[in-house]
Amino acid sequence: MARGNGGKFSCVCSLQSFDDDFVMFSQQLSDMEALPEAIDEGIIKINAFKLKQTFLPSPKECLSQIRRILPELAAERYGVFISEVHSASTALNAPVSVVEDFVAQLEALADAKAKDAKFGGQLVEIQSLYEVIDKFQIQVAEMDYAAYQVSFAMFRVSR
Amino acid sequence: MQVLLDGESLQFVPAPEEYHKEMDVMVHGFVSTLCTVTRLLAQDELMTQVLEPGMDIEMGSSLAELIECDIHTELTAEIKFFMAVAFDAAEERKQLYKPFQGLCAVNHTRDAETLKAEYLAKERTLQVSEWSIYEHELCSVGSAFPVTQHIAECFTLACTSMIPSQAASALPSLAPSARVCTIHTISQVPARNHSLFSSLGFETPVAPRKTCN
C-alpha cells in the first residue's frame, strides 16, 4: 500500500508514518483553508469558493481516518497485551496443593520471565501509540485510556 | 467567473469563449446604437446623442456603415486586448489551486483499513517484544550467522529505520543478547535476510555457528 508523505508515497506503514501523515494532512488543511475564495484580476473576478469546498473534505477525511485508527490500534494492542498478562498472572496465582501444581507454577514462572521482554515491548508500543494520540489531541474512549494508565502503572510496579 | 474542478483539470465557468461571445454581442449592440444617431458632429455631441437619442437629423447609410465598421473594429480590438490580458492573468492564478487538486487525488487513494492492517502486520513481524522468543531459539539451535557486536549494531540500526517509533524507544534498554537475537529473527526471513545483509555490506554466511552460552 502506498503511503502519503508530502504528496509522495513511501512503502512503510508504522506509527511514525501515521505521525508524519497527521502533520502532513493538517498542513494540507491549513493551506487549503488559506486559499483565497475570490481573486480580482483586471476586469475579471475569479470565484474559487466552490473549488475550496471541493478540496477541503479530502484532508479532513484523512485526518478523521487517523483519528479513528490510532485509538483502535491502541485498544487492539492493549487487548492483546492485557489478555497475555492476565493469562500469565492467573497461572502464577493458581493455588498449589500437589507437586504437579508446583511444577506447573515453576514453568509458569519461567514462562513469565521469558515473556517479560515481550510484555515490555508491547507496553512500549502501546505507550508510543498513546503518546501520538496525546500529541495530536485525538479523542479516545475514556475507559480505554483509563485502563491503559492503570495497567501501565501496575505493570511497572509488578516488574 | 468561477474556477471549478472538472474531471482532472481546473476550468473557468463560464469559459473565456463565452465572454468573447458576450463581448461581441455587447459591442455590436453598442455600435448599432451609435448608428441610430442622426447627426455626427463631434465626439462630445456623439455621446450626447447616444445618451439622449431622438435628434431628428438624417445620416447617410454609407456613413453609418463606416462608423459601424471603424468603431466595431476598434472597440473589439481594444476589449479583446484587455480580456486577453485578464484571462492570461486568471490562468496564472489558476495554478495556485492546481497543487491541491493533485494532493486530493493522492489522498483519495489512501485506504485506512489497509493501512491499519499493514501496521498491525508489520509491527508484529518486527516486534521488539518477540526477540526474547528468538533468544531462546538462538541459544538452543544456534545462529546461522557469525555474530559480532558490529553486525548486531548494524541490525539494530536497520530495525530502527524500519520501526522508528518503537525501536528507538525500546532498543537502548535491550540487553546485548537481545540485539544478537535480532539477527536471528531477521535470518528467519530469507528474502529479507539476503538484501538486508547485502545492504549493510556483509556477505551472507552459510555455516551455522553457536553464539550463545
What would you note in describing this structure?
The complex is a heterodimer of chains A (159) and B (213). With 159 residues, chain A is mainly α. Chain A has one domain (3-158). Helices cover 73% and strands 9% of the residues of chain A. In chain A, a hairpin with a 2-residue loop joins β3 (38-41) and β4. In chain A, α1 (15-33) packs antiparallel against α3 (57-92) and α3 (57-92) runs antiparallel to α4. Chain B is mainly alpha-helical and 213 residues long. Chain B folds into 2 domains: 2-105, no CATH class; 113-199, no CATH class. Residues 124-213 of chain B have low confidence and may be disordered. Chain B starts with a strand and ends in a 14-residue tail after the last helix. Chain B is 67% helix and 5% strand. The longest helix of chain B is centred in the middle third of the chain and has 34 residues, at 61-94. In chain B, α1 runs antiparallel to α3 (61-94), α6 crosses α9 and α7 (149-162) crosses α8. A two-stranded antiparallel ribbon of chain B has the order 1-2. The relative contact order of chain B is 0.08.
Descriptors:
heterodimer, A: mainly alpha, two-stranded antiparallel sheet, 4 strands, 9% strand, rod-shaped, B: 213 residues, mainly alpha, 2 domains, 2 strands, disordered C terminus
Straight-line N-to-C gap of chain B? 79 Å
Mean pLDDT of chain B: 61
By DSSP (H or I, 4+ residues per run), the number of helices of chain B equals: 10
Biggest sheet overview of chain B: 2 strands, antiparallel
Short overview:
The complex is a heterodimer of chains A (159) and B (213). Chain A has helices spanning 15-33, 49-55, 57-92, 99-135, 142-158, and strands at 3-5, 8-10, 38-41, 44-47. Chain A is mainly alpha-helical and 159 residues long.
Ordered list of secondary-structure elements with their pairings:
The complex is a heterodimer of chains A (159) and B (213).
Chain A: E1 3-5, E2 8-10, H1 15-33, E3 38-41, E4 44-47, H2 49-55, H3 57-92, H4 99-135, H5 142-158
Antiparallel strand pairs in A: 1-2, 3-4
Helix pairs in contact in A: 1-3, 3-4
Chain B: E1 2-6, E2 9-13, H1 16-35, H2 43-51, H3 61-94, H4 98-108, H5 112-125, H6 131-141, H7 149-162, H8 164-170, H9 176-187, H10 190-199
Helix pairs in contact in B: 1-3, 6-9, 7-8, 7-9
